Amino acid sequence: MYYIMVLLLMLILPLGSILADLHVFQSQTDILFLVGKWFVFWAVGIRLLTAGLRQILQPDFTAREIFRLEHAESSQIVQELGFSNLCVGLLGLITIFNAAWIMPAAITGGLFFGMAGLRHIASKDRGGHEIVAMISDLFIALVLAIYAGYSLLT
Fold it and tell me: What is the average pLDDT across 61-81?
C-alpha cells in the first residue's frame, strides 16, 4: 500500500490534475504554473499531511519501516516529525484556495524533500521503503526546484 500511495501522490495524481486542467477544463494557464500548483497540492499538501497523520498516530511504522528503529523511545521523535509534516502538508493543501501560497509551499516542501532525499542517500543498508522514499523525495525536490527557479527568473 505504501508504494501505491507514493506513486499516486508523487506522480499519477499531479500529472492527472495537470492534464485535466489543460484538456478537460481548457486552462490557458502556463504549464509550469500548473506543475507547481498540482505538485505542491498533491506531493507537499496531501502526501505530507497524510504522512504526518500516520507518523503522529502510528509512529512505529515510520520508525521501523523507513528508519529501521526498533526502540520504543523513537516514537516521540517520529511523532514530532509528524507534527512538522502535518504543518507543511497543511500549507501545501491550502494553496488550492490561494495561488499566492504556492511559491512559499514549493520552496518549503522542495527544501524538505531535497534534504530528506540527501539524508536517505547517506544512509547505509537502505531497505525497500527507504529507497522509494529517497527516489520520490529527490524527484519532488527536483520538480519543485525547477518550478521555483523558473518562476523566480521570469
Answer: 83
Cell for 128? 525497500
Residue type, 2: Y
Q: How far is CA 40 from CA 9, 47, 79, 95, 110, in A?
A: 10, 10, 23, 8, 9
Q: Which of 49, 137, 57, 115 is nearest to 87 (CA)?
A: 49
Task: Report CA 97 to chain centroid distance, whole Å.
Answer: 18
pTM (two decimals): 0.90
Residue 130 has pLDDT above 90, yes or no: no
How many Cβ atoms sit within 10 Å of the Cβ of residue 28? 7
Residue pair 95/37 in contact by the 8 Å Cβ criterion: yes
Q: Which three cell numbers stand for residue 92?
A: 501545501
